[in-house]
Fold:
Amino acid sequence: MRVLGVDPGLTRCGLGVVDGGTGRTVRAVAVHVVRTPPDADLSVRLLGISDAAEQWMDRYKPEAVAVERVFAQHNVRTAMGTAQAGGVVALAAARRGLPVVFHTPSEVKAAVTGSGRADKAQVTGMVMRLLGLEVKPHPADAADALALAICHLWREPMRVRLAEAEARAAEIAKNHKARLAAAAKQAKTQGAAR
Structure:
C-alpha cells in the first residue's frame, strides 16, 4: 500500500510518500516541504498547499492519505492555520476518492517510536532508521510527514479489523435481541391461548 503522509501547516506543509510491504516493511518514495509566504493572503497560501498536494497525489498515486490532526495548541491562530491546511489536503484527496485518516501527534509518535511522548529528534531518528535514510529529512515537517505515512501503514489494518469485529458483534447482538423478542412474543401468544 502507498500512503501520502501530510504534516499540515501554512508556512511549511510536509508531504511524504511511503510504500508499505509485508509485515512492517516500509520504503520511502518521496518527501517534500511546501512553503508559503507568511505575508501572502490566506486564500493564496491555501491554494498553494492544495495545488502541491494535488500534484503529489496525481504523480505518486497514493492509496490513502494520512493527515496530522490538530489536537491541542496554545496558539489559536496557528491551530486554525494548521487545520485549514489539513482541510484543503483532505478535500483534494476526497475529490480523487482517496480515504483520508487523521492521526494525532501522540498516535504517530507511539507508532514510530513506541512512546507517545517522544520528541522531534526521536521521531526523526526512528524515521531514518525505519526507512533506511542516510540523510536526515529537513526540516522536521518532512520527517513528520514520513512518520504519519508509516503510522497509517501500521495502524490502519488493525483499525479496519477492529471496526469489522465491532460491526459483526453489533449484528450478532441485533439478531440475538430479535430472537429474544420473537421468543417472548411467542411465549405470550401461547400463554394467552391456554
